[in-house]
Amino acid sequence: MAEQQFDLVVIGAGPGGYEGAIRAAQLGMSVAVVEKRGALGGTCVTVGCIPSKALLQSSELYEETTHALADHGIKVAKVDFDLAAMMARKDAVVNSNTSGVEFLFKKNKITWVKGTGKLAGNGRVDVALTDGGEQVLAAKNILIATGSDVTRLPGIEIDETQIVSSTGALTLPKVPKTLVVIGGGVIGLELGTVWRRLGAEVTVIEYLDRILPTMDVDLGKNTQRVLAKQGMKFKLGAKVTAAKKSKSGVTLTVEPAKGGTPEEITADVVLVAIGRVPYTDGLGAKEIGVALDERGRVRIDAHFQTNVPGIYAIGDVVAGAMLAHKASEEAIACVEMLAGQKPHVNYDAIPGIVYTWPEVAAVGKTEEELKAAGIDYKVGKFPFSANGRARANGDTDGFVKILADAKTDKVLGCHILGPDAGNLIHEAVIAIEFGASSEDLARTCHGHPTLNEAVKEAALAVDKRTINL
Predict the structure, then answer these.
(1) At what angle do helices 83-107 and 15-26 cross, to 10 degrees?
(2) How far is residue 366 from each of residues 153, 319, 363, measured CA to CA in Å?
(3) Does domain 349-462 have CATH number 3.30.565.10?
């Protein structure tokens, strides 16, 4: 079988894979991308970030119309929603994004090989083509960007009908009367929020004693309080040990995480959202000697290279936060290194965002991490209830919290619960990237009235000199 030769072959066309491929092409490399899905964009664009945000937007508008417009003097006689139309809009948004990536591939002369790629050693990738047959790609360098898959709960079978993953939760044909979400992380809270807004009674079961366990404790506790006020129920410190399906729904057996008497909880639909695992099934990594860690992630060095020369890996398939933008940063840095440049990825400046409303966003270190590391720090905190724009908008839940080094005043972390937190956090991301101090933020002129003024006031609070509190 004739081989096709490329400078770089990327396995996987998610945000990391496709953006890395585009950057490599910009740098003059001949590039092929192997993708088994029928569309480009990976989990994020097709069944993750993008469709979930489309449904979050639609459901948020519905909830605002039914609950908030009256406060603004806007009277609406009768409000209803068309779930099929919401789903059609979501699908159109996804198609727009996937076709956009396909356009960029053509623009940058990137070859899309439709099929499943497998490492074959000696700089080769064997592809089982989607339309049948095989193709062999030869490359100077290979980039593994296969992403992640849903984590399964032992003994509980996901059928994407009654017991669903995040994928199935994006395509439910009707609003369930009751929805149980197993897992109090980002995915569970976002999708739980969508269906709660549309009328489902949502209960979140979390093994740990708090939601958003990877984020600042203060942030998680206050987020739970706000979501509970909206109607979401929580059962913390609990584990699901069994699930029994019937025509009427699913009966879960739930026990205290630390042991105790089990109870039964029933629901029309159960969403399993306990995290994601690196996707290496069928990749052929082990067969050619690529080292994996104890969690099945591909081991890499500081240049994203595996122990096998010429094979690199980025994104969800390696250690670190499973975030689309983290994957993109790594992929671009990796191919720029291959081109002889000297980029870097500052892992302390990668934001994490939860797109509920209010939104939740964080960057840098948490208080718990600073305490564990023995770093002396100062805290500046400012509530949105004291921000003029938040009051005008009727969005006063939440706060901005800035953590700064007690000696140098360097910004070490920022944690926001509040309106547009996902946008506001980037002010702190830039501050951390440039090594700014809290005083730098505090002395930067912020437009009035804006939500961003809460960031400025939190920076002022580090030095105990807030103006509007």
Answers:
(1) 30
(2) 29, 19, 8
(3) no
CATH class of 3-150+278-345: alpha beta
Question: 67, 72, 303, 448: which is the annotated catalytic residue?
Answer: 448
For the chain, which residues make up each domain, given as ranges?
3-150+278-345, 163-274, 349-462
The answer on pLDDT for 1 being more than 80 is no
Query: pLDDT of 306-322, one tens digit each?
Result: 999 999 999 999 999 99
Superfamily assignment of 163-274 in CATH? FAD/NAD(P)-binding domain (3.50.50.60)
303 is catalytic: no
* Same fold? 163-274, 349-462: no
Cα separation, 177 vs 239, whole angstroms: 22
- Which value, in Å, is the radius of gyration of the alpha carbons in the chain? 24
Burial class (CB in 10 A: 0-12, 13-18, 19+), 331: buried
pLDDT per residue as tens digits for the range 347-366: 999 999 999 999 999 999 99
Residue 435 zone, left/alpha/beta (φ > 0; ψ -120 to 50; rest): left
